[in-house]
Amino acid sequence: MKIKILFFGILTDIVQNQSIEIENIHSISELKQKLFADYPKLAAYNFQISVNKKIEKGEFLFQNNDEIALLPPFAGG
Amino acid sequence: MESKYLHQGAIGNEIINAFTLIHSENKTTGAHAFFLGSVRNDDVNGKKVVKIDYSAYHEMVEKQMESIILEISKKYSDVQKISIKHSIGEVKTGENSLFVLISAGHRIEAFKALEECVNLIKAQVPIWKKECFEDGTYFWTE
User: Fold this and answer.
1) Contact call for A74 and B126, based on CB within 8 A
2) N or C: where does chain B have the smaller number of CB atoms within 10 Å of the terminal CB?
3) Rounded Cα gap, residues B139 and B142, in angstroms
4) What is the second-level CATH architecture of the domain A2-71?
5) Which chain B residues touch A if contact means CB-CB below 8 Å?
6) Would you list the domain boundaries of chain B?
């Protein structure tokens, strides 16, 4: 199973990328575990997670080709 | 990237004029209230902000803006039309980065709806800003 992860705001500086694709990650908890292992600095930042543009606050199971985004606090205006 | 709710660069007078003209076509409107957000030359740790570089999750911006417009329209039945433009990319200090125009039958609903709409945009729309300083460094605002 493949999913796309998008990064925004300050998180693009932390991971040095705007998007990555990863395989064999099935849930938000697995995703966080992998990202914090690959990018330890990420754990210090606040962010919400959206799946296909909808914010998911709890645990969530991904489908193939889901678009996941890590959203730091919004700062429009 | 230009889209329904995002404008590349500063919100200029031509955009404000165009929206005002469109809103003025409805003869049952009694009040047009607008908000114009500007880029301040803030001082952050002794360094002056010269511009803000806005970035966004474009597809989600559209979804969130539509949801806010629906929510405000449902809550304030006197509101007739809502238009929103937010800048994307670079906007210099003194220039405008957010325009919200709300037209209603009467001023009280227009004022209330406008304040709530701007607050919702700031809280719910996935836009981020990088405050850029004279020396080329920057700071992500939260």
Assistant:
1) yes
2) N
3) 9
4) Roll (3.10)
5) 37, 54-57, 59-60, 63, 86, 97-98, 118, 121-129, 140-142
6) 6-140
Strand residues in A1-77 grouped as ranges (E): 2-7, 19-23, 48-51, 54-55, 67-71
**CB neighbourhood size of B124 (10 A):** 16
Tokens of A19: 């998007």
Q: Which of A53, A69, A76 sits opposite B122 (nearest CB)?
A: A76
pLDDT given at position B44: 86
Q: What is the pLDDT of residues B77-116, one digit of tens each?
A: 999 999 999 999 999 999 999 999 999 999 999 999 999 9
Residue B24 has pLDDT above 80, yes or no: yes
Residue of A nearest to B126 (CA): A74
CB contact under 8 A, A74 and B124: yes
Rounded distance, CA B39 to CA B142, Å? 15
DSSP state, A25? Answer: -
Please tell me the distance in Å from B27's CA to the nearest CA on chain A. 30
Per-residue pLDDT at A1? 86
Q: For the residues A47-65, what does the mean pLDDT come to? A: 96
pLDDT tens digits, one per residue of B45-69: 899 999 999 999 999 999 999 999 9
